[in-house]
């Protein structure tokens, strides 16, 4: 994000000045600041060099990192001001007790916490280089990408005078959103860029386009983190498989140990105590040398061999089952890795599923009565799957659009669902989602017959063959 782009993003975020900070979430290196009175949210992405308003609600880790905990000390405080260092890539968020400074100038951007009393704290190592938060020259906000855009428009390298006029032109443009695909990545701008060709999507605001870029980055980073965890788990399974092969090889000796114990007991009278070797007649009539444990009487040593033989025999019987289970687990892990590489957008659902595995089992889906209809609400991925199992083809399924949340099912018994019942169920879907508290929430709904669960997808994940959309308040609880 170049200086002028940051300026435009700041313009759109000015509406939140005066709002109080409700919550801070950190997902990877993304910081989400959620406000109330008026409601809204900002995202700070130091590594991706970006700042803007947002409606994204990715799943946050159960335990916030230490820097996030520090930012949470500002919760309930009002945002006093948003200040840019001229047209440089530095932005200051002012609160009564501290300032947050987003510095996008270094190769790896950084975020600084400057308390009114005490030492500043940085997200990553590095010192904050002084910046002038007064007025600045707009030309400084025109970086390489914006220069490239003007060069494409003119068909040549622009002069400084032309760049300065271009900067003034951009300053007076109302920010809109444009999206392009470039080298496998999404690229957003607040004006049509001739060097990028025709945009594939347009928005009424800049931040909506930036949200698409940020969402893709979040998905990819979450998928990358999850894939790394799965690859480590796969290596542990492979080592367990190798150990199992070694145990199986040793277990194959169980019969020879049993026969050795049989021979010791059969020739017990011929074996002196305290010796480490003895030659006796084998069961085939030929002489056999037996190794012994001189610390044990031959009879006790034979019993020890029987116990070891029994243990090895049990191992030999269990190994195929354990190998089969390990191979099945490895196959499932490999499928998830492949799925995440193809569909990084599924990473939040897998993260939610893993979090639920660490939680205590929950009861059956919650049931509400709306008019003459029973409405089921899933409070976990497993309960969402249970709702799918209970659904009849004509039942109405609802879910907050584009965010993780509960599956909601209206059991209608084939009857028509009144509009007031549908709207109330949609409000429940908004309330039991990551969009809770938002003024407007889009809710998808369809008949259960139009739901499909892709093979290998995580619990609670479905695709829709058809859908309609309602817009309801996310502030109406049960």
Structure description:
It is built from ten helices and 22 strands. The chain is of the alpha+beta class and 478 residues long. The protein has four domains: 3-139, ibrinogen binding protein from staphylococcus aureus domain (ibrinogen binding protein from staphylococcus aureus fold, Roll); 142-213, no CATH class; 248-321, no CATH class; 361-472, no CATH class. Strands 15-16-18-17-19-22 form a six-stranded antiparallel β-sheet. A five-stranded antiparallel β-sheet has the order 5-6-7-8-9. Strands 1-2-3-4 form a four-stranded antiparallel β-sheet.
Output the radius of gyration.
33 Å
The coarse overall form would be elongated
- Structural class per helix/strand content? alpha+beta
Terminal-residue CA separation: 42 Å
State the main characteristics:
478 residues, alpha+beta, ibrinogen binding protein from staphylococcus aureus fold, 4 domains, six-stranded antiparallel beta sheet, five-stranded antiparallel beta sheet, 10 helices, 22 strands, elongated
């Amino acid at each position: 994000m170049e200086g002028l782009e940051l300026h435009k993003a700041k313009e759109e975020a000015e509406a939140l000045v005066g709002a109080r900070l409700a919550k801070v979430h950190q997902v990877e290196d993304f910081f989400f600041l959620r406000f109330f009175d008026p409601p809204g949210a900002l995202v700070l992405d130091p590594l991706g060099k970006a700042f803007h308003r947002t409606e994204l609600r990715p799943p946050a880790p159960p335990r916030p990192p230490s820097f996030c905990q520090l930012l949470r000390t500002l919760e309930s405080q009002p945002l006093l001001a948003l200040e840019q260092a001229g047209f440089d890539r530095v932005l200051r968020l002012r609160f009564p007790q501290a300032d947050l400074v987003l510095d996008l100038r270094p190769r790896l951007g950084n975020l600084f916490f400057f308390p009114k009393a005490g030492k500043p704290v940085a997200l990553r190592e590095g010192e904050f280089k002084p910046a002038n938060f007064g007025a600045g020259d707009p030309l400084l906000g025109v970086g390489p990408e914006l220069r490239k855009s003007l060069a494409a428009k003119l068909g040549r390298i622009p002069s400084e005078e032309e760049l300065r006029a271009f900067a003034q032109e951009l300053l007076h443009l109302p920010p809109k959103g444009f999206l392009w695909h470039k080298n496998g990545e999404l690229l957003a701008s607040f004006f049509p860029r001739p060097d990028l060709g025709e945009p594939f999507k347009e928005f009424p605001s800049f931040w909506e386009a930036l949200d698409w870029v940020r969402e893709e980055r979040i998905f990819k980073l979450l998928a990358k983190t999850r894939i790394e965890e799965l690859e480590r788990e796969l290596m542990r399974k492979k080592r367990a498989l190798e150990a199992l092969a070694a145990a199986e090889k040793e277990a194959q000796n169980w019969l020879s140990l049993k026969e050795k114990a049989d021979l010791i007991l059969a020739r017990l009278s011929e074996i002196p105590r305290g010796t480490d070797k003895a030659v006796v007649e084998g069961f085939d009539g030929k002489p056999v040398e037996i190794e012994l444990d001189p610390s044990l009487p031959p009879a006790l040593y034979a019993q020890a061999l029987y116990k070891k033989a029994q243990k090895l025999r049990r191992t030999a019987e269990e190994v195929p089952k354990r190998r089969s289970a390990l191979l099945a687990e490895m196959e499932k892990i490999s499928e998830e890795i492949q799925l995440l590489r193809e569909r990084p957008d599924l990473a939040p659902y897998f993260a939610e599923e893993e979090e639920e595995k660490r939680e205590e089992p929950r009861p059956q889906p919650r049931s509400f009565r709306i008019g003459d209809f029973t409405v089921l609400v899933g409070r976990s991925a497993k309960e969402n799957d249970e709702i799918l199992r209970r659904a009849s083809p004509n039942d109405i399924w609802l879910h907050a659009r584009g965010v993780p949340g509960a599956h909601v099912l209206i059991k209608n018994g084939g009857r028509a669902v009144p509009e007031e019942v549908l709207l109330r169920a949609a409000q429940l879907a908004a309330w039991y989602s990551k969009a809770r508290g938002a003024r407007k929430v889009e809710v998808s709904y369809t008949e259960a017959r139009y739901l499909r669960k892709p093979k290998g997808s995580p619990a609670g994940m479905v695709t829709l063959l058809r859908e309609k959309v309602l817009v309801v308040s996310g502030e109406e609880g049960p």
